[in-house]
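Sequence and structure are no longer studied apart. As an example, we show below a sequence and the tokens encoding its fold:
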Amino acid sequence: MNKESSNKNKGVETLLGEPKKAVMKLAIPMIIAMSAHTIYNLVDAIWVSGFGQDIFTSNNIVEVGTNALAAVGYAMPFYMMLFAIAVGLGIGGGSAISRRIGAKDKKGADNVAIHTIIISIIIAVIFTLILFFSADTIIASIVIDIDNCCIDAGKP
């Protein structure tokens, strides 16, 4: 048995033999991606709230106000939904491509990759059009006291 074959068997044994370890191995990249996205949203909220000082000049950061912070809060679920769809397409497409490559079906792998990209573009265009033309209506249905900054934060 060669080294490459034993490495493949070791991965399968880990996946089937030690489910907790396998789940952790598979979950770590997703945890890192979601943490990075959460940190981005946290920094965005801190920035628009005007909390803290400018590290270069030691001056207070100009406060944009509570409306801007509310706008970030209202827009975040839409971005999280888009992020979840993108991650789902990436994981699903990657899995399908991997299966085709494992079956030595290069044409099938190329076909899946092309279709994944096309579906991603179509979904991006649909969501962009929906949010661009109806962000004000969507935000108005959520927010009682609507402000233009909420609409601006929700548009692409």
Summary: The chain has a mean pLDDT of 76. The longest helix spans residues 66-102. The two ends are 54 Å apart (CA to CA). Helices lie at 3-17, 19-49, 66-102, 106-142, 148-154.
